Amino acid sequence: MKKRTMFFRMITASLIRRRSRMFIALLAIAVGATILSGLTTIYYDVPRQMGEQFRNYGANMIFMASALNEEGLTSDILEQGLTQIPDSKIVGCAPYRYETVTINNQPVIVAGTDLQGVSKTSPYWFVDGEWPSSNGQILIGKQIAETLSCGIGDTLLMTYSEEAIENPEQPDEVPDRGLNADAVNIEFTITGILDTGGNEESYIFMSLEDISELTGEGPYDVCELSVSASSEELTGYVDNITSRDLGITPRLVKRVTQSETTVLTKLQSLVFLVTIVVLMLMMICVATTMMAVVTERRKEIGLRKALGASDRSIVVEFMGEGMMLGAVGGLIGSFMGFAFAQAVSVNVFNSTITLRPILVPITIVASVIVTGIACLIPVRRTTEVNPALVLKGE
Are residues 270 and 328 in the same domain? Predict the structure, then answer.
């Protein structure tokens, strides 16, 4: 019989004979490996999960025309800027054009935008009714709706002319738009009332096609972007776009990016600390169990030494038992850890995660190392056993 096969049989038989004690050690290792695998999975998946959650709080990047750009933020320039960010990172893009129109001789600010893009960059918007789905439909802010005493299903006649811009603060001096041959008059139907608790409630939102028909073609005033990326990646995109001199001034929405970075840092630190504490508790449990096993087997160790067994062979056997427990516990814990991480992800972030195969060998190796460290002190005591004293019963 080969030495390795014999060694494996000796270790296996020893573990089976003391299965009650070894089960406790195995359970401790499996629990520790579960926490290690699960929290490691969460640790690396948290940025994506938290990024998706923070995207609900609005855009985290803004494009504006640079000071030297006389054309403004045109579609072509905007497209050049967007190409500097990977498509897989862009959650939503919403360019805005702001114009002043009159309704019943009252100046009102309308915003033309990509409404589908807005639903992705600003998912926190609450719309009473429906989002506009075709031309001629608008979304009106709650404040404007109260001022104009209008609601869902009503129609508004909007008038645009240069005079609407020249006297925005003096509505009484604005002439009757219906009598101005140069004015553009278009009726729009209200499909929803916007309630955000912010400045959006004082605007009327329509599609880019509608605002172009009402006010003519023009550049965008600003473009809001929701980008799924870390703070470092966002800063890199901003620096890259700025250095290319594309006519765009990119800016980060610091209240969103800084909050995201702060929360992620604290959460990852918490996960790291919990993992360290659990591994330390696992080491203590394994060390205590192995200490009891060594004490229980003192006579066996003494007899083996009396028969000529070296300290090295005894240490290797005990360490082999610990390593086997670590490997089995790590294998069990790696899969239990994925189930644990999946449960946390679903219940906390309401999304699923994918299994990282690389974590299986990493968890097993980590469990073996931790178990080996935990066995050092108990196994060292085997070298201190004096065969003469043990066999005499002292």
Answer: yes
How far apart are alpha carbons 383 and 378 in whole angstroms? 10
Helix or strand (DSSP H, E) at 192: strand 184-195
Decide: 153 and 190 in contact? Cβ < 8 Å.
yes
- pLDDT tens sequence across 174-206: 334 344 556 889 999 999 999 988 889 999 999
Q: Give the CA radius of gyration of the chain.
A: 35
Note down the domain range covering 212: 59-252
CA-CA distance, 99 to 108, in Å (whole number)? 8
Round to whole Å and give the CA distance between 361 and 335.
11
CA distances from 191 to 19, 85, 112, 121, 307 (A): 71, 34, 15, 20, 93
For the chain, how many structural domains are there in total?
2
CA angle 373, 377, 379 (to 5 degrees): 95
Angstrom distance (rounded) from CA 45 to CA 53: 13
Question: What length does the chain have?
Answer: 394
CB atoms within 10 A of CB 276: 11
147 and 96 assigned to the same domain: yes
| HEC profile of 134-155 | CCCEEEEEHHHHHHHCCCCCCE
Cα–Cα distance measured from residue 80 to residue 107, given in angstroms and rounded to the nearest whole number: 35
Strand (E) or helix (H) holding 85: none
Greatest alpha-carbon span in the chain: 121
The string of pLDDT tens digits covering residues 320-340 is 888 888 899 999 998 898 888
